[in-house]
Amino acid sequence: MSNNLRFKTSKFIDETYRVSFKFNNKTYFGFKGDTLASALLANGIHLVGRSFKYHRPRGIMTSGSEEPNAIIQLHDNSSRTEPNVRATEVEIYEGLVASSQNCWPSVNFDIGGINNLLSPILPAGFYYKTFMWPASFWEKYEYFIRKSAGLGKSPKVADPDIYEHKYIHCDVLVIGAGISGIMAAKMAAKNGFKTLLVDEKSYLGGSSIYDNSEFSKINNQITSSWLEKEINEISKLENLEIKTRTSVAAFHGYNFLLARENLTDHLPINQRENKVRQRLLKIRAKKVITATGSIERPLIFDNNDRPGIMLSSAIKRYIDLYGVACGENNILFTNNDTAYETAMSLIQRGIKINAIIDNREQIDSKISYEVEKNNIKIYKGYTVVDTYGYRRINKISIMKLSKDGQTVIGDKTKLNCDCLGVSGGWTPAVHLFTQSGGKLKFREEDQVFIPNVYPSDQISIGSCNGDFGLEEIIKNTLSSIKKFLDIDNSEYKTVETISGLNQSKRNIWLLPSDKSKGKSKSFVDYQNDATAKDIKLALREGFRSIEHVKRYTTTGMGTDQGKLGNMHALGIISETAGTKMGEHGTTTFRPPYTPLTFGTIVGRNVGEFFDIFRRTPIHDWHVANNAEFENVGQWKRAWYYPKDNENIHQAVQRESKAARDSAGILDASTLGKIDIQGTDASEFLNRVYTNAWSKLAIGKCRYGLMLNEDGMVYDDGVTTRLDENHYIMTTTTGGAANVLGKLEDYLQTEWPELDVYLSSVTDHFATISVCGPNSKKIVSKVIPDLDLSDEKFPHMSFKNSKIDNIKCRIMRISFTGEHSYEINIQANFGKSVWEKCMEAGKDFNITPYGTETMHLLRAEKGFIIVGQDTDATLTPIDLQMDWIVSKKKYDFIGKRSLYRSDTIREDRKQLVGLLTENPEEVLEEGAQIVADIKKSPIEMLGHVTSSYYSPNLKKSIALGVVKGGKNMLGQKLIIPMENKNINVTVADPVFLDKEGERLNAKL
Amino acid sequence: MFLINCPFCGEREQSEFKAGGEAHIVRPKQPTELSDDEWAEYLFMRKNIKGVQFERWNHVHGCRKWFNMVRDTSNDQIKAVYKMGEKPPVK
Ligand SMILES: [Zn+2]
Questions:
Q1: How far apart are the C-alpha atoms of A736 and A762, rounded to whole Å?
Q2: Is position B79 within any domain?
Q3: Which of A46, A756, A885, B34 has minimal Cβ neighbours within 10 Å of its Cβ?
Q4: Chain A residues 272-291 within an 8 A CB cutoff of chain B
C-alpha cells in the first residue's frame, strides 16, 4: 500500500537517504526530509492518537505547528523523552522512536473509548459539576481522572542535552519567511538595516515554495521558481542573518521577543553529542515585521474528527512538498477556492478525487473550471452532514444547504472516501501580534480578525494581515514596507501577478445537520474534545465572556491553544447569543506560541548555576574541615562542623560549650558592610537608627536598630566610628543589599542636602570572630603588637592594626555575650588569618562553630535575629528593646509610627522568653502558643520564634512572641502539639548572664 | 520587558531596575506634629492608576541612582524619565 502513496516528484525529499524509525513499537521507513507525520502518512497511517476526553480515534489533521491531534511521546522511557510533540513538526532521523499518547492499552484498542459511549453524560463542565460533591471524595476521583485523562509522560531522569540563551540586537526582525517575509527581509537588508529573518520550518519560502500551479504566477514565472531566485539572492546579503527551525515563542512589549532555535533535533542521536540542542534567542528589535501567514480553518460538522479528515492545505503540502498522498479516494469539502488548488495538485499526480463538496451555490474562478474540466463532480451548495468509519473515514453523507445555510434540505447522498480534505477559509495568524498588546478589528466581508492598532514599532504583512490574494500580498507588502522603513527604493520594479483564484467564501460557523438538535458531535476543539454543543450549553447556562466559555468548555485550552477552532467558537457564540463578532472578547493568545522545553527556558542555569551562591574567602577551609552548610540569602554559610559521627545536635552542643568554656571561632564574613563617609555621616546615622549617634567617639562601636517608616524593625547591626567623618556599618547577612538600597533612597530623595557617601564593602573584607574566655590570649598571639588591655581596648571599641604587615581592623564586640574580637582583613588574606587563629588557639581548644551554634549562643543572651524573631510586625517596644529608642531625638525613620493608636496597644505580640516545664523538652520553632485549650475556638496568642537546648544552662530555652507577653512574666502557657500539650512558663528573654559579667570579666 | 532610559546611564533593560512606588510623596518635615490620620495618609495611601502614573525607579544594578518615571500603566509606555527633585516634564 505504501508504495502507492509515495510520489517521487518532490525535490525536498532525498530518496537516496532512507531513514528507519519506530512508531508504537513497529519499524517503518521514510526519507530524509520527511516529518514524522509525512512518513506515517506515506505508510498509510492516519490513526495516531486518542482524544483527551472521549478517547475517540484521531489522525493527523495538519502539516504544521497548529496540529491538535497528532501529538506524540518521543523516546519514551529514555532520558531524552519528550511529551506532547507534534508529529507534523518532527523531522525524522535514524533511530527516532515515537509512541501515541493518551491511550491504553493501545491506540487501536483503547479502554477509555468507553467515554465516547458515555458522552451524553459528559457535557461541558461535567467534571466541575460531578466531582465537586462530596468534597472529601475528590482525592478518590482525582486518581482515576488523572490516569485516564492525561497527555504525555514527563521524563524521570536528568536531561542529557545542552541548552543556551543568546541575546540578539537587530534593526529589523522579520518573522516568517513566506513570500511577504522574504520580500520584506530583502528590502530591509538592502536598505542598510541589520536584519534577522526567522522561520519555524527547516526551509524558507512558506507554502509558496512548493506552489507549482499554473494558476498563480509572478512575473510570468511559477511562484516557486520566482521565490527560489529571491531566496538565492537574499542568502548572499551581508546585512541579513537567516535562522530556520526557529520559532518565535513570545512577543513582549518594547519589541522584546523570545524565539527557540532548534539545532540538533533533526539529527540522528549519535550526531548530537556535545552540541547545543536548543537555543533561546532573546531578541531586541528596533522594528518588527510580522509575516506569520495564516492557518486554514476546518469546517464544523457532525463527526468531523475521524482519522483521514484533514485540512485541505495539509493534503496539498504532503503531496507537493513530501510527495505523499494522504488517501487514494479523496473528497474535498470547502467553502472557498483554495481547496481547488489542492485538487489541482492531486489531479497533476493522478490521485483520485471522488468529489468536491462546496458550500457555495455559485463558483466562478478559473481554477474551479479547470477542476471541473477534469471530470471531477462538484456538489455546489452542499454540505457534509455526517461521516463514517471508526479508525479511518470510509464514507460521508451530504445534503443540500438551505438558502440561509441554517438547515439542510432534500435527499441524503452517501459517498465513499478514505480521506476528506476540509477548507473553511483562512485565519490570519495574529497570535504574536496580540501577545505584543496589539488590538484587532473584525472584517465582516470574510469574517476574519486583522491587526488594527500596533502597540510598538511593528507591522504585520501578508496573510497574517488579512491579505490573501497573491496580487494583494505583493502589492501591499511593497507599499507598507516602504512606508514602515521609510525607504524610497523597494528593490522591486514591477511585479506582475496572475491568480486563478477568487476570494469568495460562504462562511457558516456551524454547519447544519439532519440529526435532531443535540445529537450531533461537531468538534470545535479537537485536542480538548469541546463540541459546538458544549459551547451552546455554556451559553444556556449563562456564560457570555469568551474567556469564561473557554474555561468552562476547555475550548482553546490545549497545548495548541485552539489555533484551529477558536474562530469557530467565537462564531458560534456570536450566532447563538445574537451578538457581533468580538463583542464578547477575542481570546487572548499567551506565550509561548508553541510549547517550549524546560531545557530551553533554563538554558545554562542548571546544576550549580541554577542559583549561584556566594562563598566567603574562608569557604575552602570549611569544606576541608567537614562543615555542613546552610543557605543564608545567596551565601553558603558554615552551619556546623560535625566531628566523627556527630549529628547536628551533638555538634552544636559541643561547639557552644567550647565557645563559652574556652574559645570559639566564627566566619562572619557574610555580614553586610557599608562604608559611610561625609561631613554629615553622624547626622545621617542619627536619622536612620533609633538611638543617638552624634556623641559616639572616634574608635567606638555601637549597636543600632533600624526601623521602617511604619515603625517595624527592619535591620540591626554594629556600626563603628573609624574617623571624624567615616563609619563602617554592619548589617544582617540577608539584609545587606536592601539596607543599602533603603539608605540610598533616603539620601537621594529625602535628604539630598546631606554630605554622605555610601559604598558596599561586604566582599572586600573577611571577618573572623574569636570569642570565649581565652579569646584575648589567642588574639594577642596573632597580633602581639596590639595592646588588648581593658583600659586601652575596652568592650565596644575598635583599633587599626596589622597582621604580617597587612592592615586590619579589630573590633571588640560580641554577639555571644562572651569576651570577643572581630578581625576584619582584606578578603584574600582571610583564610590565612583564620588558620593563624586556629594555630594560636590550639592550646585553648579553639573550636570553629557555625551559624547554628551562633544562633544558640545569642539566644542564651536573648539577642534577637531580625527575620527570625521578627517578621516586620514588631516594633522595638514589642521586642522589649525600649532602651534603644532615643527619647531625645526629634526624628528618625519610623519614630512617628511608634505612637500610632495601633502601635501603642498593650495587647500587641511581644517578645518573651519561654521555659518548658520539663527542661529536657525542646519546643518546635513556629509552634503556636495558647493559654486556654478548653475554649473553642482556641485563641492563638503567638508562636515560638527560636528554640534550643542550651548546654551551658543545661535546659531547654526558647524565644517567642505572645500577645501582651510583656506583662505575663511567670505565667503558665501551653504549646499544643499533635500528640501532646507542652507546658511552658513566660520568662525573661535573657537567659544567661544578664549582668554581663562574662563580657566584662578580667581576663 | 521595558527598555528604560536611565537619566544617568542611558537605555538599559528593565531587569537592571527596581520599581519604588509612587513619586512626589514628600516625607513630612515634622512628623511629630502630625495626627495619626495625617501620618497614615503619608505612610499608607498610594494611588494605583490605570493610565498615566508618576513612579520612582532605582537603577539598582547600574548607577544605583533613584529617578522618576512617567508611565502609562495601561500599555507600559514610558512618557518621560527625569531626575529626583526635577518637575515632571509632562502632565
Ligand atoms: Zn543608571
A1: 8
A2: yes
A3: B34
A4: 284
